[in-house]
Protein: Glycoside hydrolase family 15 protein
Organism: Acuticoccus mangrovi
Amino acid sequence: MTNLALGMIGNCSVNALVDDKAKIVWWCLPRPDGDPVFHALLGTNGNPGDGGFAIEIEDFSHSDQHYVENTAILRTRLIASDGSAVEIDDFCPRFLSRGRVFRPAQIVRRIRPVSGRPRIRIVLRPRFHWGKMKPQITSGSNHVRFVADGQTIRLTTDAPITYIRDETFFVLERAFNLFLGPDESLTERPGTLGREFQEETEYYWKRWSLRLGLPLEWQEAVIRAAITLKLCTFEETGAIIAAATTSLPEAPYSERNWDYRFCWLRDAFFVVRALNALSDLETMENYLTYIRDIIALTKGDHIQPVFGIGMEAAITERIEELPGYLDMGPVRVGNQAHEHHQHDVYGNIVLAAAQAFFDKRLLRQGSMEDFRHLEVIGDRAYMLHNQPDAGIWELRTRARVHTSSSLMCWAALDRLAKIANQLGLSPQHWRARANEVHEKICREAWNEEAGAFVESFGGQDLDASLLLMAEVGFLPPNDPRFVSTVDRIGEKLRRGDHLFRYHAADDFGRPETAFNVCTFWFIDALGRIDDRREEAREMYETMLSCRNHLGLLSEDTDPQTNQLWGNFPQTYSMVGIINGAVRLSRRWDKVI
């Protein structure tokens, strides 16, 4: 597997990763942060093929793979040496039915011959409890059940059950349909239901894409990024996961292996902001229900930076015994960041909610009661704006007054002043606090010797998160201090067309790979500064060239090889694709 040659399918209840040979290598149940019944992406402690769902063609030669245009349906063609071929359509059903969205915890695979007399076999080996438990298998005339302690999944199909159980090669003479999911019977014949589910799912995604407000340029990249971000939402609660995976290392053998299948309030804000820019407001509305629950849960006290997608506060980190991606363990489950104090979280909450007070399209607009709850968040932001924390990069053994955290505290106060004004209230209280914090950041975080804002009050090091100063409106993009900060960051953190988060050593030494969202932040900053737009466009094109064959990005990129590393697909990175296009595209009215 090179350069994370994976595609993502999903339906906002579950998601799965499919490699370029049509093998499902990652699928967690009963939801995205659950037990990976397919965990082949992280290796296996059993036999080769365990923890995966493969469809193999005999005498395999090569494959071709793409998404059905503007959908989350993945199509893979497997070609044998003699030219015979099969085509596989993979998707998780999602469509409107009986006045609601139908999104079961189910994968549908539709297989058909396209040339010659291909022989295929189906290798279906789910494993439970992180690969430790092999299920009991029972079967009937049209189904196979995989039974484990506390969980059962069922495959229902019109393909030969005996061949599936025995993993036998057979000639594929007609189309077959495979439904894998809950231990329930189908309501129709597999062929009828497979066709209906695919048609309805395709229609849903094409209608969803049709409503996006796209920039003129790079539309295919933006649509793919938007669909991918949508697949990273857990619609039941409104939570948004940072990535679909755990423990894909940020760099080879670095042990920077983290579980990203949870909702970071910081990352989720950026997802909401990017989709808002494309006029997808439904994601924001769903997420705000999650945020209101978080505020109610914490009652104005400390808010941790990350929660489970069911609002779980304790997502304790542990190590599982799988070998890891390319045998590069450890495999971590849970994330220690839930124990951290990261003060930027208060700004991320207010920023995510702010549009609800101004946008008349929303079904539930921001109310006076909502504002009063946000004021409690603002009080925390003001109280903590100059206190040490773990920072945006979640340093585990060091606390400082991080400039980026103080910046987001300022953003919370600034937006509360604007919301108060919108509601017909006096903004004076929040404006005075915002001004106080603004002055303190300008005084304490500016380093005259460096000619730049630095990562912490009184510090010396540069940090890519300072590029967000223009993004959140702290400084005008042509302010000399911001321009100088961008220049110094470029000098210290840029490697070719890629940007590192920081250059100082952290808990694991010096970073070895560039952080994709930082590169996109740099691109955005350049795009805002006079006379730097063309430079930004060139860097943006470079980042697009780093995507895998399906248009997806992980968290990190090796600046020497363009190899993708880190959890996948990373919402931060997909957000960067959207923001870059929106910032840099030529305008419609200048072309048409």
User: Anything to note?
Assistant: The first helix runs from residue 161 to 166.
